[in-house]
Amino acid sequence: SGEERVVKHLKFTRWPDHGTPPSSAQLLRFLHCMRAAHAQGPLIVHCSAGIGRTGVLICTDVILGLIERDLSINVSDIVKEMRLQRYGMVQTKEQYLFCYKVWLDALQSILLRHGNRWQPENPSDSQPIPVNHDYFPQHWSPLPKEEIISIYF
Hints:
Blueprint: E1 6-10, H1 24-37, H2 52-68, H3 75-85, H4 93-113, E2 148-152
Antiparallel strand pairs: 1-2
Helix pairs in contact: 1-4, 2-3, 2-4
């Protein structure tokens, strides 16, 4: 058809199969780069089996999207919904707990960045957390060149 497309390939090389990244900050950095590279069109996420690391990445991206829209977050429900679409998403207990860690670290980053020491008086307090959804640390550098490949066709 003569139409030209750019395909950007991002690869997270520091994430072991059946495991979790060394830190939630590394995954948040990767998600930041992924979102910056994904301006429009489809986004494809895949690991070796397409369920463990893929499930964690998608789950944490959904969590960040819910934070951005000030919506409630239930990691269990997110994973259940993903498993309806692909059996086995988020393979291990460690990966499941890591989704919670990324969520908590993103919220902590928001609160610390804005000097906000907000804490509810009781866990059922429905007061919203005042944020501007800036959970990506400003000092992050771009991904190393070996982790981003642009393909033109």
